Amino acid sequence: MGIVDNSKVKVEIDGIEFSAKRGTKIIEVADEAGIYIPRFCYHKKLSIAANCRMCLVEVEKAPKLFAACATPIADGMKIFTNTEKVISAQRAVMEFLLINHPLDCPICDQGGECELQDLTVGYGCTTSRFLESKRAFEDYSFGPLVSTDVTRCILCSRCVRFCSEISGTDDLGIINRGSNSRIFTFLKTNLRSGLSGNVVDLCPVGALTAKPSKFKARPWELVQKPFISSHDCLGSNLYLHVFRDKIIRVVPRRNDLINETWISDRDRFSYEGLYSSDRVKSPMLKKDGNWIDISWSQALDIVSKNIKSVIESSGADNIAAIASYNSTCEEFYILQKLLRALGSNNLDHRINQLDFNYQENMPVFSGIDIGMDEFDKLDSVLIIGSDIIKDHPVIGIKLRKIINNGGNVFVVNPIDFDFFMNVSNKIISNPKDFIHIISSLIKNFTFFNKDFNDKNIINLFSKLNGYEKYREFSEKFFSAKRKVILIGSYVIFSQDYSKILYLCNLLSSISGAYFGVLTDGANSSGAWLSGFVPHRLPGGVKHDIGNNVNCSNIFSKLLKLYILFGIELENDSIYAKKSLDALSKADFVVSFSSFKSDVLLGVADVILPIASTYENVGTYVNMSGIWQSFDPVVLSDYEVKFGWKALSDLASMLKLNGFNYIDSVHILSEIKSFINENCTLSWNFNVIDNLVSNINGDLIVIPYLSQYNVDSLVRRANSLQKIDRDNDFESNLVLKCNDGVYNKLILNKSLNKLLADKKIIVSIDNSVSDGVLFIRNYNLLNYIDYYLLYEVFSFDKI
């Protein structure tokens, strides 16, 4: 890496003197100074192309005009942006750009917010000298999300550079030459990236627009409202565009601390699910096997009477609450307060966790100890158990930037996922080997660092064998000055979760690496801080009575009454079958939900409609501990209540004290009264001597987690589901395994009959590690009757 010269130089733009870092481009200095230079191809998050020539400026004593986007400043440089020579060049460029551009502004979705329109008015000619026929192109589909009209394209190449530099998929390119040049997906495939919708924002004309919102409204008719993403733990900032009280589209809201100027397709198009026919429109009661609509007062009265009845007959310990990790802090707080006021501690949101050992040693909240704005400064990232590009698409942008800056990304995964980037080193292995792999990294660290003298750690790994084969991997990772260790979903699912956490925390502490968990959903961190775990009260205060309570045994105990909040267990949880068995045997099940499903209608007794994501008010805490509050973007036409309000009304019906809240701000202030300087990501593990994997057997079942199946809203977004249906693995009941596993499976006649009866396809995929059966989503587990995601069995048991 070369030496960077950060010295300041003085330049003059239009007679005004400025100082800036040597090497800064002219257009950057002008933007900082508030001097506008027109541009099409330039974008500050993309590389320099300098192909539109719209940003030409005049430099004193230079014979030719310079492209401001590509020209670095020099000391004493005098720049002119509005001379006759510059204006003439700008008009000429505009004239060339408009030669083949169709005059269809009245029917173009970009009309009214089009950069070409604006610059034509500001810098173009009033008439055209071009009399020949305009060229036109046939449009090819880029998939269900992005609509194309390539004839409008001015070849700025922003979309091409985005796919190459930001998403890493290289889906788009420019083919042919001269006037026949056009953007194209070379193999006529759909855009593969979970970030593909960003090309719509980048396109300065109407060549690429959002397909789901096509022809729905004009830009000047839209009202822009801020919101926070609810589909992953990053908490991306959004703007929602509303037309006549209906969401029409979603665009990014710049926040350099979190998502910069990008959002995932999941964030952009999930709003479609809000208008699903599955919406619960009013409180519903199951009576004699049939569902009828009732009033809120009737519904709350029925629920409260059943709660009182269970307490009187069986005690409060027979009541449990399970909430979605996308619930707001206010909802988590009110629900845990209600349940504990009743005398029950059976509450949890960790619906995808199997191993709850040592949970009393966990930090005050689950997350990572580094902000997203600090990722750019990292030299190395170690990812363990995550398909991070699909699970957290915007974080993938940060990883690619680290690699482009000369850093390294290391991966330990059960499947060789395509990260669309040059991963430095990767270990693809059975999850039961993860403990040995991480232990080997620690052992190698003690080997490389002769000054390391912690006898307890050295002795702990003194008998470890086979660590030498990970020496090169270890040496590269530990040589970095600034590094982070990230744990993902495929570790959270593991029966070795607590031991892997312990080892990664140990690895972090001895090597100086940052460390954390890429948590499920939008608000797992907020759930911990709000007290919605059985062993912690709000603010992380220890609650020892809950140390032996968790999501797994809440279902195992077959309790009398279950409260479900914003959750569809058949799709959201690894306990899909186990939970539904428990619910079907319960005396009473009440669900606070925005949507109904066949499964919910089968197990619930009362369904109470609550505001869906974009209708809700509340607060999320992202994985870095950033609190972000939001207000409703639209109000529902149905008889729905805010989640916190519905819970407060239920508490009042139960005659519980302390639930007379005015609004969500009142609740949030109460939550924050429990938050202090001790609410940090500090771990308190004692030494775990038994570092043997809890996973036994020959075959481990792992689900494929589709990025478009993460929650009830996304599952009902039609455009996103079309992407799933375009993918054979995502659209069918498919099991994937490598050659070795497949050859053993086909020998089992009873299994083959079961698979044939259920029309389940077994596909060979050698990216899957040995001994792993890769399965589509949780609900497929019901077909083959496995209770647990990571349940292990030998081939002769199959």
TrEMBL record:
Coiled-coil residues: none
GO cellular component, one term: membrane
Top EC category: translocase
4Fe-4S Mo/W bis-MGD-type domain ranges (all copies): 222-278
Keywords: 2Fe-2S, 4Fe-4S, Iron, Iron-sulfur, Metal-binding, NAD, Oxidoreductase, Quinone, Translocase
Occurrences of domain 4Fe-4S His(Cys)3-ligated-type (ranges): 85-124
SUPFAM superfamilies: 2Fe-2S ferredoxin-like (SSF54292), 4Fe-4S ferredoxins (SSF54862), Formate dehydrogenase/DMSO reductase, domains 1-3 (SSF53706)
GO molecular function per UniProt: 2 iron, 2 sulfur cluster binding; 4 iron, 4 sulfur cluster binding; metal ion binding; NADH dehydrogenase (ubiquinone) activity; oxidoreductase activity, acting on NAD(P)H; quinone binding
Domain 2Fe-2S ferredoxin-type: 7-85
Acyltransferase keyword on record: no
CDD domains, alphabetized: fer2
The keyword Transcription belongs to this UniProt entry's keyword annotation: no
Domain of life: Bacteria
Cofactor(s) the protein requires to work: [2Fe-2S] cluster; [4Fe-4S] cluster
Gene3D superfamilies membership: 3.10.20.740, 3.30.70.20, 3.40.50.740, Dimethylsulfoxide Reductase, domain 2
Enzyme Commission (EC) number: 7.1.1.-
Record's cofactor remark: Binds 1 [2Fe-2S] cluster per subunit.
Reported function: NDH-1 shuttles electrons from NADH, via FMN and iron-sulfur (Fe-S) centers, to quinones in the respiratory chain. Couples the redox reaction to proton translocation (for every two electrons transferred, four hydrogen ions are translocated across the cytoplasmic membrane), and thus conserves the redox energy in a proton gradient.
Entry protein name: NADH-quinone oxidoreductase
Species of origin: Candidatus Azoamicus ciliaticola
